[in-house]
Design goal:
Layout lengths: L5 E3 L4 E2 H9 L5 H8 L9 H9 E3 L4 E2 H9 L5 H8 L9 H10 L2
Antiparallel strand pairs: 1-2, 3-4
Helix pairs in contact: 1-2, 1-6, 4-5
């Protein structure tokens, strides 16, 4: 799921647009709808958006909950989150999202 592809055909919203919304702080379906308009017409993409929202690092299969837990337990840099979870330790593309989780605490 890490390759860019159209997630919402009705609104032509791709995977990277959803990830950018997450980096900006979107954490729920409603947030994604407000930012990208994805899932506002037919809703068929809702499950895939949910899967994208739940994931931070595809390389290491690290969830948002795991990253948030590491932050809650004191990991206050992307490197410390990487040590605790593995997120951001392979390709690094998820580091901006990891940093956003640190910055906003969720």
């Amino acid at each position: 799921m890490t390759q860019n592809h159209i997630v919402c055909n009705c609104m032509q919203v791709d995977y990277l647009a959803i990830r950018r919304a997450m980096i900006s702080g979107a954490r729920a379906q409603d947030d994604i709808q407000n930012v990208t308009k994805a899932s506002t017409v037919c809703g068929r993409c809702k499950d895939e958006i949910g899967e994208i929202l739940a994931s931070v690092c595809g390389c290491k299969n690290v969830s948002l909950a795991e990253v948030a837990g590491a932050v809650k337990n004191g990991a206050d840099t992307a490197e410390k989150v990487g040590e605790a979870t593995g997120a951001g330790t392979v390709c690094g593309r998820c580091k901006p999202l990891v940093q956003n989780v640190i910055d906003i605490g969720r």
